[in-house]
Amino acid sequence: MRELRTGETLNPYRSVDGSPLECYDAIKAAMGIEGFKAFCRGCIFKYIWRYDKKGFPLSDLYKARNYLEKLIELVEDEECANKAED
Predict the structure, then answer these.
(1) Distance between CA atoms of 71 and 38, rounded to whole angstroms?
(2) What is the pLDDT of residue 62?
(3) Phi, psi at 34, each rounded to 5°
(4) What is the Cα–Cα distance from 63 to 50, expressed in whole angstroms?
(5) What sign has the CA pseudo-torsion 32, 33, 38, 40?
(6) CB proximity list for 63: less than 8 A, separation 6 or greater
C-alpha cells in the first residue's frame, strides 16, 4: 500500500461491483444511525491509534478524517432535523 498524497481522493464507500448501493449505505442500513455513528467512532479510533505504526501515517490520518467527516455529517443532519421539529 502506498502513501496517500495531500489532496488525493479517498473513497472507501464506492461500489466495487457496479451496484448502485454503496458499502456506506449498506452498513448504515444494517446498523441504524446510532450503530453507524458508533462504527465511525471505532474507525476513527483505529486509524488514529495506528497512524504512526504502519509506515503510512498520512494514509491512516486521511482515513480517520474521512470517518470523522461522515460522523459530523450525521450529527449535523440530526441537529437540523431537531431544529425543524421545534
Answers:
(1) 9
(2) 96
(3) -65, -40
(4) 11
(5) positive
(6) 10, 12, 43, 47
What is the C-alpha separation between 20 and 25, in angstroms, rounded? 10
Query: pLDDT tens for residues 7-64?
Result: 555 555 455 667 778 888 899 999 999 999 999 999 999 999 999 998 889 999 999 9
pTM summary value: 0.75
pLDDT tens profile 60-77 = 999 999 999 999 999 999
Torsion, Cα of 73, 74, 75, 76 (10° steps): 50
**Number of other residues whose CB lies within 10 A of the CB of residue 59:** 19
The helix (H) or strand (E) run that includes residue 82 is helix 57-85
C-alpha angle 7-63-78 in degrees, rounded to nearest 5: 105
Whether residue 66 contacts residue 10, with contact meaning beta carbons closer than 8 Å, is answered with: yes
